[in-house]
Specification:
The chain has 2 domains: about 210 residues, Growth Hormone, Chain: A, CATH 1.20.1250.20; about 70 residues. By secondary structure, the protein is mostly helical. Helix content is about 80%, strand content about 0%.
């Protein structure tokens, strides 16, 4: 009797194991395709950013500014744009929690299309400055793409996937100036802005039609809320870490931000806020353009 039971159980176990394997393979294909689309979108973002904006000082010279005034205007644009990003990014992050990360990605890329397109139509320096300020106010798609990549990857692939995600960013930063230089040499700076706007349209379409977002907003809201001092401590420490590691050859490798938040939220007490605020101020003075690398 026992032998018969064992014989009957073996086929059922094999069928069960086979069904689990097929389901797992299906899930692997689904997250793999979605993560690949996120990688391409992230890569193109940095390619297009670096294809045009490194040449803004030369573009200002083309608009009639002297060498010294072009340098001064470029510094002013960096400061004001970074300040706008510092104010706007928390707002867009809050809206991302409410309306979804994919919506914020599409919004930021659509705004980038308008900024790049209008940049090629400018005739005076103040117009370029205004568009850079507008770009800082509308924020970027780097933060929602990072969060979306983290929630898309399965736990056993998270470390590897985020490493590949950072690699895509570095490759895009390296390839962007090459592409921008070739296009600028062929059709000029204005044409470079227009080509960038056109490619950003394709990138926005990719994000809207191909990338899928897990529906986990309700689960995310069940996490305990941080106090003001704990939130200030986490943000200031993260900024200090970013600022003090910017002179490395390829930027300091950052841990996945959702994981860092989960790990730190129970470790910071109110006293850490004061110490971290001092460190944030020192880091900000040392490297004022840190927001451009967020």
């Amino acid at each position: 009797m026992n032998v018969r039971c064992r014989v009957r159980l073996v086929p059922s176990l094999r069928l069960y194991n086979g069904s689990v394997t097929s389901v797992q393979r299906q899930r692997d294909r689904e997250w793999g395709a979605n993560f690949a689309a996120i990688l391409v979108c992230h890569f193109l973002n940095f390619v297009l950013i670096q294809a045009s904006f490194p040449f803004i000082p030369l573009y200002l010279r083309e608009l009639g500014e002297s060498e010294s005034s072009a340098i001064a205007w470029t510094g002013l644009m960096q400061v004001v744009s970074s300040g706008m990003m510092m104010v706007a990014n928390p707002v867009w992050g809050s809206l991302s929690d409410r309306f979804g990360r994919k919506a914020m990605i599409t919004r930021a890329q659509t705004a980038a299309v308008a900024v790049y397109g209008l940049m090629g139509l400018t005739t005076q320096t103040w117009q370029v400055v205004g568009l850079r300020v507008l770009q800082g106010a509308v924020g970027g798609s780097g933060a929602p793409l990072t969060t979306l990549a983290a929630v898309t990857l399965p736990p056993h692939r998270l470390s590897m996937g985020m490493g590949v995600f950072q690699t895509a960013q570095f490759v895009g930063v390296s390839a962007g100036p090459v592409l921008g230089g070739l296009v600028a040499a062929a059709i000029g700076f204005r044409g470079t802005f227009h080509v960038t706007a056109g490619l950003m349209v394709l990138n926005a379409l990719l994000a809207y039609f191909v990338i899928r977002e897990p529906k986990d907003y309700g689960a995310a809201r069940t996490h305990p809320r941080l106090s003001f001092s704990q939130g200030l401590a986490f943000v200031s420490r993260a900024l200090c870490c970013r600022c003090t590691c910017t002179r490395w050859p390829a930027k300091a490798p950052m841990p996945p931000r959702p994981l860092a938040w989960s790990w730190r939220r129970r470790r910071l007490g109110p006293r850490a806020a004061v110490r971290s605020s001092v460190g944030w101020a020192v880091g900000l003075v040392r490297e004022p353009s840190w927001l451009e690398r967020c």
